[in-house]
């Protein structure tokens, strides 16, 4: 972490990738040097680890910090981040931590995001970075960035889902009382002059869908459940989730199929029927398009005990 580190940004990765028997992670918090680090919002941190921790880390998080547009991080920090990335570590920035990541040059020519209040400053300070101000997080493979602190949870769950599978990610989301899946493409800030009180109604519809995946779920059926017009439902649903309603339903079906592949012995054909995708061929096609793999390969990777 850097001087002025924001407490929530520091705590999110520690909470998601918690060191416990069910999670194969060891979490360490480090700074440019061991000792006391002044944080933001009136807090300070006494850290046991310096930059030597980056020599073994597989994933390095850069929490947001105050006044990121004033000065670049210390040269030793930039060098250590570059070295970690060069040996294969992935670097993930939460909120204004994107400024520190951009200072390494590793975001040049890539998409990235940060808190909406700082997107223009990031673009001005690092013009080679393709700043996207309208998303919750951006995954560029070995370098990842997220918007405000809450979207750091989405980014962490996204990484956890890739590491351990959807069941582990959903378990962590339930533990954190967080949404199990929000698209990285979801808008981080949608200004409205008059708030539309549909959030709870739409959330209830999404929850209802998860219990009716085998039904014939059309746009009209979903809009009727939310008690709004199909046009209003489509527009607001995309604002809330980053997906069209039907694309979200498909993702939900695939995610439930992933969990069944991880946690049950049911065949691909049975699982396809369980989640409303009809046939195994249909499930395989959607798996290949969305996840770039097959159900069988996914099961071999993430099945419990393997």
Automatic annotation (TrEMBL):
Superkingdom classification of source: Bacteria
PROSITE patterns, per database record: HTH_ARAC_FAMILY_1 (PS00041), HTH_ARAC_FAMILY_2 (PS01124)
UniProt keyword GTP-binding present: no
Gene Ontology molecular function terms on file: DNA-binding transcription factor activity; sequence-specific DNA binding
UniProt keyword annotations, A-Z: DNA-binding, Transcription, Transcription regulation
Pfam families in the record: DJ-1_PfpI, HTH_18
SUPFAM superfamilies recorded: Class I glutamine amidotransferase-like, Homeodomain-like
SMART domains: HTH_ARAC
Ranges of residues in domain HTH araC/xylS-type: 203-301
PANTHER family assigned: ARAC-FAMILY TRANSCRIPTIONAL REGULATOR, HTH-TYPE TRANSCRIPTIONAL REGULATOR RV1931C
Name of the protein in question: Transcriptional regulator, AraC family with amidase-like domain
Organism: Krasilnikoviella flava
